[in-house]
Amino acid sequence: MEFINDFTAKLMAMNGFTLAGFIVLFLLVWFLPTLLASLFNRKHLGKIALLNIPAGFSWIAWAALIGWAATGKLTDTMARKAKLKSPQTTAN
Prior knowledge:
Layout: H1 2-13, H2 16-30, H3 32-39, H4 45-55, H5 59-71, H6 76-85
Helix pairs in contact: 3-4, 3-5, 4-5
């Protein structure tokens, strides 16, 4: 309980600029799986974004979403572009 009281006191002591910076940093970390899924053009971006809201309360679920966002399937358009760029292999 002492930790919460200390943390609350420190938040109240921050000036507006520092508090705004803390809130932005907090939200960036909270929604990191969604940002990664968007950056990597993942097919299930909507599901990851929706699950990201409650998953932030659990480190395990949040870490699982990070894994899903980093290794999930590409969107169809990005998958087609990746196939076009890959070297063609011929079987003889």
